[in-house]
Amino acid sequence: MTVHNLGETNSILNQFIAEIRGTQIQKDSMRFRRNIERIGEILAYELSKTLEYLPKIVETPLGNKNMELPKEELVVCSILRAGLPLHLGLLNYFDTAENGFISAYRNHENNEDEFEVIVNYFAAPSLEGKTLLLSDPMLATGKTMENVLKVLKNHGTPSQIHIVSVIGATQGIDYVKSVFPKNTHLWIAAVDPELNARGYILPGIGDAGDLAFGEKL
Ligand code: URA
User: Which CATH number, 3.40.50.620, 3.90.550.10, 3.30.1490.20, 3.40.50.2020, labels domain 2-213?
Assistant: First the structure.
């Protein structure tokens, strides 16, 4: 797997990352969602540089222009619910992408720290031969991605997989590397060193779903 950690280079991206981390600014859920969406747009732009392009003639009112335009058939698949703002950010740039949604949750038996990831909803078009963008803002243990990979096998074999994430823990990235095909790309805006006992990224941001959409029972 090729890891593209965009936060390693100084850019405006790190301003948006700082805003989703900061305990005061992140409380403004509309700004939080918009920042995740903006991060998605930047990740989409960087990822677009690795897609396949085909020559095309564009007719302007004054003449013709030869251009190279994206060839790929893209499918953006996001993990509910935290993946929704990131999904929108990707769609803002990939206008014609098809869409898939996956509902996965962590089942903590008896409220213990150990958990199993359960995928209970997967709605997507055929992935056969297409370029799949799997979006999940928080790549913590990597177990959700592993389970998603198992489920999407029933929907055909994508020609290429790009995992798109905002913050990842080193451990989760290593795990995903071990289970995904070698030609997978990971596009990520920041990498943090640790996970806590509940599988949250440290220092991370907290619960991305709650920050975007409010606390759940
Ligand atoms: N999901 C979150 O929302 N935050 C984490 O730190 C890990 C998983």
Answer: 3.40.50.2020
